[in-house]
Design brief:
alpha+beta, OB fold (Dihydrolipoamide Acetyltransferase, E2P), 6 domains, 33 strands
Length: 698
């Protein structure tokens, strides 16, 4: 059968050079109709970047022709980086003149120009991440251009007179890109709509939704399918045998504002230690492969969470009702049942579809009050469940200790939480509390994800993995230079395996948060892949995402694969090949959508900080230096979880220079220096709502 594997095997086993089309036909012994099918297949592989055609019209594998495929990460100064799709590969630097018009998140093919310097040139954009941009239109005699609001887009886009849509000079517009930039051709766009400049934080969020081209509503076909399911839930196939677990004491533990409950847990003491049940919403029962709901979830990739709203991956009829594990109602679940010994070692696991009924919708705050604060009222209210919470505490403790002993990194970094008043205006920005109850759920979900990943991998079935590669060795040297200023370390080189010990050694010290940030910035970003290379941050040999199918598409994919394993018993070779063809694209798209969601969420936080601080211009505030560069200091305030920038041009008491070896800024004449973690008093000089920036002065 002619497929991608046939072509790949041909280049791997039968030749060591690029081949013309006719020679491929001869080597494969194809008939005329099969040759036409080959042409279509080669075009598809060219589009995906698996093969390349050179100037002489010969085909060959991309990697054999010094080419690579990956994400493009753009920088505001015009250069960028390529994050290779192939696991284990280090990033490549792309100079400004060699980006070929690639934009943030694009899937690109690049030629490696220097392996030693890790430098590459983009030769083709395989897939565009953005179809629309938001920017300001500038109209003059020489023509009309849109200046993008997105900082990483370093070029303007030309707008033809007929494509302005009544936009006036200086208007903020949403535009559709009609021609993407290349080395030889500038970009152009047409105005889709003129938008009002934000008058409130809610308006700002609406603008950011436009900036990131996030979907506001579901297509009619998808909405209709969700409404139909809400009225007539599917009974499920006859072979779908469910285990009735409604008699188990079961709880969900989530944040106060959560509406979609993916997971619930049950626990008992067993003869050898603990028995834990992790119940996950059986979304796959309602959302089969390639259904309208599945295709929409795949294109969205993930739910996006803002302080005032959620843009869900699935319609609310499913995410907040039918699939959500609400209390005191029967719900369909996928259960991972695990036995652990007293030291936290998993000694057995079972997977099955189940029927559960959650006893309580618990919050992290309530569980903390019971286990840590020993709050009498809370303990009395949940007296029947308290023994189970105590067991959870014991199991969580041994699981965490075991995970850290094997080398898992312990980052306990605070995150901002925006508190809104009834008008939707931020009234405070605080550190989001992370307590022991968060750790309980975190450990139980990690255990379930590992159990599922190991089970599927052991069976040799293609699947999606959550991978996290080891840090770039060159970045380890940068980390070492800075960390030696804060922590006592010998003169030996820092290795990736030393990170866990380093983080433990600075636990509960004043330098803990700063070193955590430095180490975190040196690490690669976790992503999805159909190839398992392990998870460095968790020190896990095999890890996946299984526990959040309501809000993450990869989890839903793993559910469907595990469902096939349980119901069909034997997965055919043909089905394995189908999965091998399908999963790489799903992994790439899911990773890209995750990055987009993170960027959108961070942009909203930046905007909320600016709106919160706009009335505080002129005030003197205390803060801590959390970032240093040649341009100035990044400062986080002590009173609010707000970050801003002190530019060197605002530091007028001296000429300041940056030492990249020590990551310090020092005055040439006064000798005054600034380092990471240093306390500093600054003045709020300016708040730029347009750029979503807070500017400090000394």
């Amino acid at each position: 059968m002619l497929n991608k594997e046939t072509i790949t095997a041909l280049f791997r086993e039968k030749t060591s050079r690029p081949l013309p089309f006719k020679e491929i036909v001869q080597l494969l012994g194809l008939s005329r109709p099969e040759a036409r099918a080959l042409k279509r297949l080669l075009r598809e592989m060219l589009r995906s970047g698996e093969i390349i055609i050179n100037r002489k019209g010969m085909y060959g594998p991309a990697e054999d022709m010094n080419l690579l495929v990956g994400y493009f990460e753009a920088h505001r100064d015009g250069y960028g980086f390529i994050l290779p799709e192939k696991p284990g590969e280090r990033d490549f630097f792309v100079p400004p003149q060699k980006t070929a018009g690639a934009m943030r998140g694009d899937r690109v093919m690049a030629r490696v120009e220097s392996w030693k310097k890790r430098e590459a040139r983009v030769i083709r954009v395989l897939e565009r991440a953005a179809a629309r941009i938001v920017g300001t239109i500038e109209i003059s005699r020489s023509g009309s251009f849109i200046k993008p609001k997105e900082r990483t887009i370093s070029f303007d886009l030309y707008v033809a007179p007929d494509d302005r849509k009544n936009a006036k000079n200086g208007d903020l517009v949403v535009a559709e890109i009609t021609v993407y930039p290349t080395d030889k051709r500038p970009a152009s766009a047409r105005v889709v709509k003129v938008v009002e400049r934000p008058q409130s934080p809610a308006d700002e969020v609406e603008l950011i939704i436009d900036e990131f081209s996030l979907p506001r509503r579901f297509p009619k076909q998808v909405s209709d399918a969700a409404k139909l399911l809400a009225v007539h839930p599917p009974a499920g196939p006859r072979h779908e045998r469910r285990k009735d677990l409604r008699q188990l004491a079961t709880v969900t533990i989530d944040g106060e504002r959560a509406k979609d409950f993916d997971d619930a847990v049950s626990i008992e003491r067993s003869g050898r230690g603990f028995r834990l049940w992790v119940h996950i919403a059986d979304v796959g029962h309602f959302v089969p492969w390639d259904s309208p709901l599945d295709n929409e979830a795949r294109s969205r990739g993930t739910s996006v969470y803002f302080p005032d709203r959620v843009i869900p991956m699935l319609p609310k009829e499913l995410s907040e009702e039918l699939c959500s594990l609400k209390p005191n109602v029967d719900r369909l679940a996928f259960t991972v049942e695990m036995d652990f010994d007293h030291a936290g070692k998993r000694i057995s696991e079972r997977f099955y579809q189940s029927l559960i009924n959650s006893n309580e919708r618990m919050t992290y705050t309530a569980v903390k009050k019971i286990l840590i604060d020993r709050d009498a009222e809370e303990m009395r209210r949940y007296a029947s469940l308290q023994p189970y919470f105590e067991l959870m505490k014991d199991l969580c403790t041994v699981l965490r200790n075991r995970r850290f002993r094997r080398g898992s990194l312990d980052f306990d970094l605070p995150e901002p939480e925006v508190l809104l008043d009834i008008q939707g205006v931020p009234e405070a920005i605080i550190r989001a509390e992370r307590n022991f109850a968060h750790m309980i759920i975190e450990e139980f979900m990690i255990a379930a994800n590992e159990a599922v990943a190991e089970h599927i991998e052991r069976l040799g079935i293609p699947s999606l993995y959550r991978i996290h590669e080891e840090p770039d060795p060159m970045k380890l040297d940068d980390v070492l230079r800075v960390v030696r200023q804060f922590a006592r370390m010998g003169g030996t080189p820092l290795k990736a395996k030393d990170f866990a010990g380093l983080l433990r050694s600075i636990k509960d010290t004043p330098q803990e948060e700063i070193i955590n940030y430095i180490v975190l910035r040196s690490l690669k970003q976790a992503r999805y892949s159909d190839s398992n290379v392990g998870h460095f941050g968790l020190a896990s040999m095999s890890y996946t995402h299984f526990t959040s199918p309501i809000r993450r598409y990869p989890d839903l994919v793993v559910h469907q694969i595990l469902r096939e394993i349980l119901t069909k018993k034997v997965i055919s070779d043909q089905r394995k090949k189908e999965l091998e063809t399908l999963l790489p694209d799903i992994a790439f798209l899911s990773s890209r959508r995750e990055r987009l969601a993170d960027d959108a969420e961070n942009t909203v936080i930046r905007a909320m900080r600016a709106w919160f601080m706009k009335d505080k211009v002129g005030e003197t505030v205390e803060g801590k230096i959390v970032g240093i560069s040649a341009y100035g200091l990044k400062i986080r305030l002590n009173e609010w979880y707000v970050e801003g920038f002190l530019h060197v041009s605002y530091m007028t008491d001296d000429f300041y220079q940056y030492n990249d070896r020590t990551m310090r800024l020092f005055g040439r004449h006064t000798g005054k220096s600034f380092k990471m973690g240093q306390e500093i008093t600054v003045r709020v000089d300016r708040v730029d709502l347009e750029e979503r920036e807070i500017i400090f002065g000394l």
